[in-house]
Write a structure and sequence with these properties.
- By secondary structure, the chain is an alpha/beta fold.
- Helices cover 41% and strands 19% of the residues.
- Strand 1, helix 1 and strand 2 form a beta-alpha-beta unit.
- Helix 9 runs antiparallel to helix 10.
Length: 268
Amino acid sequence: MSAANSEQPPTVTVVIPCYNHAAYVARAVASVLDQDYPGIELVVIDDGSQDGSIAVLEALAQERPFRLVVQANRGICRTLNRAVREFASGEWIAILASDDFWRSDKIRRQMEALRETPGARFCFSQAREFRDETQAEQGRVFPRRVLGGEVLERVFVRQHVPAGTMLFARSLFDELGGFDEALREEDWDFVIRSAAAGPLCAVPEPLLYYRAHAGNTMRTAGRRRIFQQKAMILSKNMHLVSPWRWLLAIGVHFAHDIVLAALRRRGA
C-alpha cells in the first residue's frame, strides 16, 4: 500500500452519487465528513435529481465545504466514472450511496486492514440493514461471513460484498477501466474483476448502515430484469473462471430469480 509509512496518510476520495434522496443525503454526507480518518476528500455528484436533493446539497456545501457536482441524469456507472476520473485526487476511492451512511471509523478501519494485507487493493466489510434509523444498531448484519483473500471463484457465484463498503485503489480502478457503463448496476461486475486482479481485504465488522426502503433498486426492479443483468455480468466475465463455475453461477441465479420468484407468486 503506497505511502503506508509516511506522516501524511493517503488521501481517500469518497464519492456519493445522489439521485432523488433529499430525505437521506444529509445523513450520508455527515457520515463521511465525520470520519475519524484525517485524509478524506468528498465528492458528491447529483445525477439529475427532481426531488429537492440539489437544494439540500447546496445548503450542506455552504455549511461544511465539499465538492458538489450537478449534472443531467446519466445513470450510476457513468456518474461514478465521471466523478472518479474528473474530480477525485485520492490514491484510494470509496463509494457511498446517498441513502446509506457509515460508521465513523469505517475508512480508518479499512485502511488499517489494507496495511496488514500485502498485495490487496480492494477492501470491504460487513454492513447492517435497517428500516428505522432510530433502531439501526439492531439491524441484520450481512454477509454473515466475510471472505477475504483470493475469492474470485466465490464472488463469481454470489456477490457478498456490500457496495457501500467498497474501498479500492485508484490504480485498480484505472487498470480495470472503471465501472462498465453498459450495465445498470455497478458493484458485482467491479467486484468480480477486482477479485481476478488480486486478493480482497475484508473487515469482519458492520461499517456500513444500509437503509432498506421502498425505493431500493433491488426492490423496484423485477426479478426477470435483475436476472438479465446478472446473466450479462456473468457472461462478460466467463473467461475468468472455468465453464463449470460459470454454469453453476447461471444456474444458481436462474433458480433464485426466475424459478423461486415464480413459485412465490403462485403461492401468494
